[in-house]
Design brief:
Blueprint (H helix, E strand, L loop, with lengths): L1 H31 L21 H32 L6 H34 L17 H6 L7 H15 L1
Helix pairs in contact: 1-3, 2-3
Bound molecules: zinc ion (ZN).
Length: 171
């Protein structure tokens, strides 16, 4: 009889931990999903302003470095969170939940680090002639697409085609 109450508490704590993990994962997904970053004011090119003028490049550089800062803060938060939470649970079920949570966090952190590297490469490539042109067909990727996906290296059409091919290969 005494045991039942405790089991109830453990299960509640377990469910709570799972919800928290899910929430954290969803929140991070928003920052890394599809290489998108939405926190910017759209650039208004002047009439007759040429594609990728200095102003547009500065604007994209700004978006990229802001996004990188945000991701770096996320990575730091993950590290701190894991250090704070590294408690030793006597209950195997609690331990399993924590291990699951940590492995999700590690995967997220790995994804964020890769994305930071990609952002760094993109910032370096801003100075090159290839930047802003589709690596597959060579047309302009376009300012609006670059604003929404500054790490994009393909135009919308080539990207869509690649995704269709990808689905055909992997089902
Ligand atoms: Zn293309």
């Amino acid at each position: 009889m005494i045991g039942l109450h405790n089991i109830g508490n453990t299960m509640a704590a377990d469910a709570k931990a799972k919800t928290a993990t899910k929430k954290a994962a969803t929140r991070r997904k928003a920052a890394t999903k599809d290489s998108q970053f939405r926190n910017f004011t759209p650039y208004k090119p002047k009439r007759s302003e040429e594609y990728l003028s200095e102003g547009q490049l500065d604007h994209l550089r700004g978006i990229l470095s802001q996004w990188r800062t945000q991701l770096m803060e996320e990575v730091d938060r993950t590290v701190n969170h894991m250090q704070d939470d590294a408690a030793n649970f006597p209950d195997p079920a609690d331990r399993a939940t924590q291990e699951e949570e940590f492995s999700i966090e590690l995967r997220t952190r790995d994804r964020e680090r890769k994305l930071i590297k990609k952002i760094n490469r993109t910032i370096d490539s801003l100075e090159t002639d290839d930047f802003g042109y589709c690596e597959t067909c060579g047309i302009e990727i376009g300012l609006r697409r670059l604003e929404a996906r500054p790490t994009a290296t393909q135009c919308v059409d080539c990207k869509a085609l690649d995704e269709i091919k990808e689905r055909q290969i992997h089902g």
